[in-house]
Design brief:
By secondary structure, this protein is mainly alpha-helical. It is about 60% helix and about 0% strand. The chain is elongated and about 110 Å long.
Length: about 270
């Protein structure tokens, strides 16, 4: 009886430890969601809900609705060039070709002004991130991650191949910014987890998710060994607890077995993972 009692207690402690363990994909434990909401990665990345509810941009022209977020990697300099400088130059070019002595000079000038305003409105709608697909939003998020987690003074020198989506597993990643790679991998892991959590029959992407988790663990292990201060400072910026990335991260045994065993989670009729 004592042996059975001790065994039952060990099993209860194991279940409690597994239940309170940080999520291997989300990076935080139950009830600790504020760690992600207060992280830099959460604040700089955009989701569909954030884009649709973004406040309007600063009004520079009452006749044109300027987008709050631009796609195609357009920054403040390009915005000023496309939405202010070039329309002004085109407007001046059209008005300079008109004869000010003609009686319809004012009407032609107003017509040119309205045409230029309409072109500016069309350009603003074209560049608005609200009209982008998932690939456009992912491109903008990768650009923001590179800018936020990159080395100061080197905006574009932070592992360009990772930004383009070819993330090779390197054994000695000393020539690239590891913090940027880990941030991009965390962003990809969260996106893939949202997909896998919704489509439980997508067994193939479970394997891809496990590979991304392993690749991030390798990079974080290297960073912890070579720069402990950078490692400790990076985890809060990503919204990750140290227990979620240290040790063996086996997604199949720790997470999907519990997820498939729960009949109330996800859609009905899911195929269980054996």
């Amino acid at each position: 009886m004592q042996k059975k009692t001790a065994q039952a207690r060990r099993e209860a402690l194991t279940r409690e430890r597994i239940g309170n363990a940080p999520h291997p994909c989300l990076g935080y434990g139950p009830g600790n969601e504020q760690l992600w909401l207060q992280s830099d990665l959460c604040n700089i990345t955009l989701t569909t809900e954030k884009i649709q509810t973004s406040p309007p941009a600063r009004v520079r022209d009452p006749d044109v609705v300027f987008p709050a977020n631009y796609q195609y990697g357009i920054g403040p300099r390009e915005q000023r060039l496309l939405m202010e400088d070039l329309p002004t130059v085109r407007m001046q070019q059209q008005t300079c070709q008109l004869d000010p002595l003609r009686p319809d000079y004012e009407d032609e000038a107003n017509r040119a002004f309205h045409l230029e305003t309409r072109s500016k409105s069309q350009m603003a709608r074209l560049l608005d991130l609200k009209n982008a697909d998932a690939g456009g939003i992912a491109f903008e998020n990768r650009r923001r991650i590179v800018e936020a987690f990159g080395e100061p003074g080197k905006k574009n020198d932070t592992g360009r191949t990772e930004v383009q989506g070819t993330s090779p597993l390197v054994s000695q990643p000393t020539s690239i910014n590891i913090q940027t790679l880990v941030a991009i991998l965390t962003y990809r892991i969260r996106n893939l987890w949202a997909h896998v959590d919704h489509f439980r029959r997508d067994i193939h992407n479970r394997r891809n998710l496990q590979l991304l988790l392993h690749q991030r663990a390798v990079l974080l292990r290297y960073l912890k060994r070579t720069g402990r201060a950078r490692y400790n400072a990076l985890l809060p910026r990503l919204g990750i607890e140290s227990e979620a990335v240290e040790g063996e991260v086996n997604l199949f045994r720790s997470l999907f077995s519990r997820m498939d065993a729960n009949p109330n989670s996800g859609k009905k009729g899911r195929r269980k993972l054996k």
